[in-house]
Design brief:
Elements: H1 29-61, H2 69-110, H3 118-180, H4 189-225, H5 231-272
Keywords: Guanine-nucleotide releasing factor
Pfam family, one: Spectrin
InterPro entries: RhoGEF_Guanine_NuclExch_SF, Spectrin/alpha-actinin, Spectrin_repeat
Amino acid sequence: MLNSASDLFSYIQKSELTKNLDGTLEYCHSEWIHHRTAIENFALTVKSTAQMLQSFGTDLAETELPNDIQSTQELLTAHTEKQNHLKEKLRLAMKEGKTLLMCIKEPTTQSLNYTLNFDEEENVRTAERLLIQLDETENAFDQFWSKHHLKLEQCLQLRHFEQDFREVKATLDVLMESQMSLTDIGDSVLRVEQLLREVSLQEERAQESLEKAQSLASHGDQLIQSDHYAVDSIRPKCNELRRICDNFSNEVKKRQGTLSKSLEVHTCLDKVA
């Protein structure tokens, strides 16, 4: 049996006993409860935040890419807003953990001689572990989001490229069809000269469409060089645009060559006559 608190000193060091037992250990039960409650709440925050990020990540992974510009833009906007919302929750959770850690360590900042007791050290380790866990969760989420966001942006680029391709190709097809329909070689010098002027005028009018096609093909090349995920879809369209442009230019040259020969013939006939 122990007759007094001092008898404890034979078995336990003063530094391990609280002041009410004549020891030197700083201990406040209400503070201990406050810290433990705060740590448990923070642990729940970390867990719920990780679950929200995991759920959002699953939604992103299962998302099908839209086939039109508007739907893609709306999806990009919606996902970005959700990501910003979750990043704010992460920021607040990190702030909560850092504030908790500062509160636990506060006595050491007020007194250089203060030494954290066992429970306080355990609380510090727990808070630091949870902060590390939260940081790792955020880093993993950031990496996943970066890849997903890039894919959505590339999808939007692709949808714009596809729409521009359809519009430009439709214009080129009309030009090509119009050029191919011209078979009149003229029956006089005046008529041939008129036909040559019409060819030159048509070529001049087609320049804007041809430049758009070449510019779009160059844009497609840039998408390919940027490691776009839809390279196999973009490259054939770039080749198609260039092929049509080359065919149109060749048909114009062919038409001009035919009319030039016709002009020579009619000029010679006029001289003979």
